[in-house]
Amino acid sequence: MKKNNLRILVSLLLFIAIPAFAEKISIQDAAEMAIKNNKDIKIAMLKTEQSKIDVDKAWSKKFFTVGYTAGANTYLNKNFSKTGEKFQHYLTLSQPIYTGGKLKLGHEISKENLTLSQLNLDKVRKDTILDTVKAYIDVYDAMSTLEVLQKSKETLNQNLKTQQELYDLRMTTKPEFTEAQRSVADIDAQIVEQEGNIEVSKEALGILIGVKDSSQIEIIPFGVDDNFTSTVKLDEDLAKLKTDNTEYKIAMKQNDLSRKNVEVEEASFKPSINGVINYGTLQGQDRFGNILKPRNFSTSAGVNFSWDIFDWGQRKNNVRYAKKTQEISSVQIDQTLDTVTANMRKTYFQLRSLEKSIKALELAVQKAEESYEMEKERYAYRLITMENLLQSETSLRQARVNYAQAKLKYYYLVSKYGAFLD
């Protein structure tokens, strides 16, 4: 996959930098760092390099090899006394002439495996980018929730201050004042917990992008157009899955490989023929020094013919097994397409649903803010209890959290939808 194609997934996001931040990592920076530093990607790249070596190895098997053979034998009589010695050494050149197509198929399979490795590398990159986007969003989510909690703390601290003044003037009851204290202690506990969630989320992001000191990570808030589905055509995108989706291309390539493996097993029924040329001291010499004399060198040429005739049906069973494997891979092609199609449709409709929900949740925040202001006024006239007021504040806090989380989920699903066509 080219670098520009890798950015398609992240480019769906509209990045909005907030000037108040100092040193930061944007979501696009995080994706590029993951591509460069992630260990899963490095492993997949090394496996691709191994596949390239396998192609070279399979190619070289089609051509001649040269070997050297040397031997020494001592002959003994029945009393184990030496009666003579024989020495020989020679070079052998062996060239495959006919293998029933096994060498050709082996080279083709190695190239298919290289393509499969490259596709798997693309998939690892894509999955890593998605994981990075999710991890980045998790940090953003945790930080957004912390901001909501801190905003609530300001409100609750102000409320506690008011209650303290009223209690000192004997204008409120002890239970009312105690409830105000409890609400502040509770929000403090939630803030501490959320700060821990931020550190954990940053650590997960740091592992993906290769940053050891994850506590130093500062993210940049971002946003996307909330009408993403209006810019896509689902039916056209579904039709592109057969040409663009990585998982489907992997399934197709695996089917091609299984088909060639059937041909390899069928080729085992055919004989093998090698051309052989030997040069050196081919006949045994009775003196070691004689094997080194050029006048004793000779050349021989010939053909080696081998054919496995009977093996109790082992090769036949290997062919049957390979054919069943090929049938399985054929079914998996359809299975992969069905799964990817269903997931893409599901993601699309989740996005459409969220587009409606986000608007409703935004209105819910506005309503909760208005309700809280009204409850504060009612409490000032002692028309409601402190518990009622704090419940209204809790509802406002949850409405803000729900709205922020829905938007972040929407951002992730936008990236996920784009990944289906990558």
TrEMBL record:
Gene Ontology CC annotation, any one: efflux pump complex
Coiled coil: 351-378
Alphabetical list of Pfam families matching this protein: OEP
Taxonomy, superkingdom: Bacteria
Compartment(s) where it occurs, according to its Swiss-Prot or TrEMBL record: Cell outer membrane
Keywords: Cell outer membrane, Coiled coil, Membrane, Signal, Transmembrane, Transmembrane beta strand, Transport
Protein name: TolC family protein
Organism of this sequence: Leptotrichia rugosa
